[in-house]
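To whoever picks this up:

The nightly regression suite flagged Glutathione S-transferase as changed. Nothing in the input moved, so I suspect the structure step. Input below, exactly as stored in the fixture:
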Amino acid sequence: MSQPLELIYFDIRGKAQLARNILTLFKIPFVDTRIKGNTPDDALKQLAPYKQFPIIKIGDLILAQSMTIARFYASQNNYSGKTFIEKALADEVVDSTQDLLLAFFTNKDDEEKRKNYFEVTVPSFLSTWESKLVSGNGFIARGDSYTFADLSIFTVIEQLKLQERLVSFPNILKLFNYFVNHEILGPYYKSLPADPQ
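Regenerated output under the current build:
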C-alpha cells in the first residue's frame, strides 16, 4: 500500500497553490495540511529542512521548496513540456509568476510601492505573457498543449485577483477561463476558502 502524500503549508494559497493545483488536476490524492496562524509548531519546524514551507511529506521522504515540488509533479505527469525547449520556456514563465507573486508580498504594505506594482509591474508581466501566448499559438511553452506554466499564470492571476485587468490581454483571458471552468479545477476553486486580505 502506497504511503499518503501530505502537503504542509499555511492556510492561504501562497507559494503552495501551484503544487496543490497540479496534484488536484491529476487526481493525485494528498492531505492538504494547513498551518493555522503565522507560526508552525516545533514539530513541523523540525520537518522542514530549510525551516520554510511548503514541504511535501511521503513517509520518511521530505521534499522542500515550492517550485521543486511543483516541477516534480508536473514532470511526473508529463505536464512540463515535451521537448527541452518547451521545458525551458515553461520553467522561465513559472519562475516569472513567482517573481510577480513575491513582488506583491514585498510591496503590498507600502501605498506608493503597491500603486507602482499594480500600475507598472503587473501590466509589464501581463504584456510579456500575452506576447508569449501569441507566439505560442495559445500555449505559453510553444507546444501543442498546456503545461504547468499556463497553470501557473492562472494560479497567480486568481490569487492576486487580476481577472479584471485581462481585458487588454485576450490570450491570457482565454487561458484563465479555460482553467477556471475546467471540469476538475473549477469545482476545486469554488470549494477553496478565500485568502485573508
